[in-house]
């Protein structure tokens, strides 16, 4: 009985220490309950956060983080606009994340998802938009925009990193409707793409893997591994089946979906070269054969 009471007290003290760490060490308070549609959900590898648990940051708390004003051209509405933004790398640094948490997955209200690994964060400097022309998400959509991009938007810009304008499928790194950030270890989360036949792939398959992770991943999920966005009706296995057994159809569909299906919601990718599509097909063929 005494041992149990002592153990309970130690556990309580440890819990209080962890809670205090989360709330004060980084100047942020993570809330257990969502109290507003503008509270940003946080999941994954945060100190003291059990698997499956979620914490929340309020917009006002995010607004108190180091931020910068960025003048963008045509980002949300025609012409110039000024956004107030917090760099994703700062959010990653200021929260009590586990040492292995080197990447972020942003998910949106419609199931769309974007992955930002350590190399991307360093090179392209993505940022979380808090205000557009001085107005926060409770006053969105901004004048001139017909739909609401909130509660949050993540973007990149050549204003900060000139190379951003040459990034293939840059739109996949500019998700709108972001409501959750998940802290992950990239190697752990994508382990299935780096083992078995994918442990030592050809350069072509490597290129296809990068295309999938940085573009197709946004909409197409692997349900059994919870890997990818859920916006698209076709999970990765169905996409891979088409790529493997009907490559001509796959190429045409990726480039111009509505030509083959007038009801298709997928965005066209006419800019994909034959080499890039071949690389994607070869990668998907391997995933079909890799358990």
For the record, the count of structural domains works out to 2
Shape: globular
Sketch the major β-sheet: 9 strands, mixed
**Portion in strands:** 15-25%
N-to-C span: 49 Å
CATH topology annotation of the largest domain: Sulfite Oxidase, Chain A, domain 2
Number of helices: 10
Structural class: alpha+beta
Which H/E pattern describes the elements? HEEHEEHEEHEEEHHHHHH
- Helical content (DSSP H or I, runs of 4+): 25-40%
CATH class of the largest domain: Alpha Beta
List segments where confidence is low: pLDDT < 50 over at least 5 consecutive residues.
1-5, 11-26
Q: Total number of β-strand segments?
A: 9
Q: What is the averaged pLDDT score? A: 90
Task: Name the CATH superfamily classification of the largest domain.
Answer: Oxidoreductase, molybdopterin-binding domain
CATH architecture descriptor text of the largest domain: Alpha-Beta Complex
Using the CA coordinates, give the radius of gyration. 21 Å
């Amino acid at each position: 009985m005494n041992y149990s009471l002592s153990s309970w007290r130690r556990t309580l003290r440890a819990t209080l220490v962890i809670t205090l760490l989360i709330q004060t060490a980084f100047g942020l308070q993570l809330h257990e309950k969502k109290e507003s549609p503008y509270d940003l959900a946080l999941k994954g590898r945060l100190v003291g956060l059990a698997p499956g648990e979620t914490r929340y940051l309020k917009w006002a708390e995010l607004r108190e983080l180091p931020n910068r004003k960025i003048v963008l051209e045509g980002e949300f509405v025609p012409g110039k606009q000024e956004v107030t933004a917090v760099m994703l790398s700062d959010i990653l640094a200021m929260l009590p994340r586990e040492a292995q948490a080197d990447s972020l997955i942003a998910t949106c209200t419609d199931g769309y998802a974007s992955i930002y690994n350590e190399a991307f964060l360093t090179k392209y400097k993505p940022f979380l938009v808090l205000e557009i022309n001085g107005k926060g998400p409770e006053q969105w959509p901004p004048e001139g925009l017909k739909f609401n991009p909130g509660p949050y938007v993540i973007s990149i810009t050549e204003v900060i990193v000139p190379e951003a304008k040459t990034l293939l499928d840059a739109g996949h790194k500019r998700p709108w409707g972001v409501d959750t950030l998940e802290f992950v270890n990239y190697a752990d989360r994508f382990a299935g793409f780096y083992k078995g036949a994918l442990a030592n792939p050809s350069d072509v398959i490597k290129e296809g893997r990068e295309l999938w992770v940085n573009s197709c991943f946004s909409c197409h999920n692997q349900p059994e591994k919870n890997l990818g966005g859920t916006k698209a009706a076709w999970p990765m296995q169905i996409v891979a089946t088409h790529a493997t057994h009907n490559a001509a159809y796959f190429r045409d569909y990726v480039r111009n979906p509505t030509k083959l299906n007038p009801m298709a919601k997928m965005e066209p990718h006419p800019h994909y070269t034959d080499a890039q599509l071949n690389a994607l097909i070869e990668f998907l063929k391997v995933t079909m054969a890799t358990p």
